[in-house]
Amino acid sequence: GKGLAVFTSGGDSQGMNAAVRSVVRMGIYLGCKVYFIREGYQGMVDGGDNIEEANWSSVSSIIHKGGTIIGSARCMDFIKREGRLKAAHNLVTRGITNLVVIGGDGSLTGANLFRQEWASLLDELLENNKITKDQREKYKFLHIAGMVGSIDNDFCGTDMTIGTDSALHRIIEAIDAIVSTAYSHQRTFIMEVMGRHCGYLAVVTALSSEADFVFIPEAPPSVDWQTKLCDKLEQERKSGQRLNIIIVAEGAIDREGKPITAEMVKKVVVDNLQQDTRITVLGHVQRGGSPSAFDRILGCRMGAEAVMALMEATPETEPCVVTLDGNQAVRLPLMECVRRTKAVAQAMADKNWDLAVQLRGRS
Ligand code: F6P
């Protein structure tokens, strides 16, 4: 059977295990020899026990677990050609020419670069007598399929990244808990949520928790935001509300591109309204815990599709990323999605928020 390996890379997210499970089982079902690569690209570079053959039962009882059982890492060695050479050697000697990468845009870009270099890496290995001529010929094509695992929902081409829905569950649970204590003490709470440069988690959280105000990177508030914020909070209190909730995305910025932090917002509220105010930074709680049903199914669907894409690949097939589009699992050209995702980052850096939102698309 064909050699196929799966690995998770970059920040973890809930639902990655479901995706790993699906890749392993679909691969075995289709007659592949399936491997785990542990600790992301680092495991690929280091080889040894990090690359281990998987069987049907090695992915039993993981679908409900948060994080990734095969580990994840941000790898510096893979950035250098020397590291990629070692990785190629580790794959060829095991007969692995199909890779499923589950990660963010950085991890997917790395995989694409690796594929582009594959022929020259193999030539160098042959020159150095690390592989045989037969191996050079037999394993000359590397096929890649990606899936996006991230709580941030910041990748172009998919309606939802694997992990976002679970993170929202975690956040909403926390806010509901905060609301009850805020109510008792008539307090104002400022909640900082993750998302890096993406405001998706913050917006959905604000809408589903009846928050009074939200700060996100894609829509920096007008220069008089302090007045608007205070007016809104006052108005809510006057109409009988006992508490206020303000959501601040960790990447929130003002129109000059300077960060708007929970501390800054708190100072505005306390100085102007003298409200009893607290900050809660949810942090990595958002990335932990068991995956939601949605993320489990999403991981399963994406994983199966990724393996099918690899099995159907020809030498000419470009690397794909499997995404969700209107509840359909689809295959998109990996690099086009990465380019669009980078264009969003550039538009944000250029303070062209409208373009950023437009480029990001449906999500
Ligand atoms: O990309 C996922 C994410 O959780 C972001 O929301 C956050 O900015 C970042 O990772 C935190 O990174 P680390 O886990 O390295 O602290």
Which ligands, by name, code or SMILES, are bound?
6-O-phosphono-beta-D-fructofuranose
What is the count of helical runs?
A: 12
Major beta-sheet overview: 8 strands, mixed
Q: Can you tell me the overall shape?
A: elongated
Describe what you observe in this structure.
- This protein has 363 residues and is an alpha/beta fold.
- It contains 12 helices and 12 strands.
- The strands form 2 sheets. Strands 1, 2, 3, 4, 5, 6, 11 and 12 form an 8-stranded mixed β-sheet that branches. Strands 8-9-7-10 form a 4-stranded parallel β-sheet, sandwiched between helices.
- β11 and β12 form a beta hairpin.
- The protein binds 6-O-phosphono-beta-D-fructofuranose.
- Homotetramer.
Question: What brief labels describe this structure?
Answer:
363 residues, alpha/beta, eight-stranded mixed beta sheet, four-stranded parallel beta sheet, 12 helices, elongated, binds 6-O-phosphono-beta-D-fructofuranose, ATP-dependent 6-phosphofructokinase
